[in-house]
Amino acid sequence: MQDDSYASAGPWARATLPDGQQLDVIVTGRTRTPDGQWWYELEAVLTARGTLGDGRTVAEPTPVAFSAPATGVTPIPGEDYTAVPTHGAVSGRQWQVENLWRTAAGPTRRLHRRDCWHARAAHQRVPTAEAYTLLADPDVEPCDICHPERALRHA
Question: What are 85-113's pLDDT values in tens digits?
């Protein structure tokens, strides 16, 4: 699985490549993209050709960096991922605020759970603390499909 020189390089995980192959990789970071998706920054240790001082050609382990969606990365039991640098995370659960573009007679925005399929118009992601505040705003209505007000009672 791994060369001894890479054993302490970082936690290892199993990445599934687009063609279905699986590869053990080093996890170097995780990033939440603006659309709310998680991606892992990874290094695959591949073989490169090297030349020794006496002219002999040898195989050398060489890390190759790439990114993969979190859905394609599986933790390996026993590995510790707590020290992996994480970027783009906002503390608390993520919620969506949809712009409704209604008149002043009704709400102008709607609050959704992060994974709600019903959020159609332009939206922004907000943390839990802000979602509580938005529910108290008369210009914001909770989605009648995903019911964020119910989930926020347990958040």
Answer: 888 766 556 788 998 876 667 778 899 98
Paired strand residues for 42: 27, 66
Contacts of 17 (CB under 8 A, 6+ apart): 23, 72
**pTM score of the predicted model:** 0.56
* Nearest residue to 71 (alpha-carbon basis) of 118, 13, 119: 13
Contact status, residue 99 vs residue 119, Cβ threshold 8 Å: no
Give Cα separations from 79 to 24, 26, 94, 110 (angstroms).
12, 11, 27, 41
Q: Burial-class residue 106 by CB neighbours within 10 Å (0-12, 13-18, 19+).
A: exposed
- Exposure string for 137-153, b = 16+ CB within 10 A, e = fewer: eeebbbbeebebeebbe
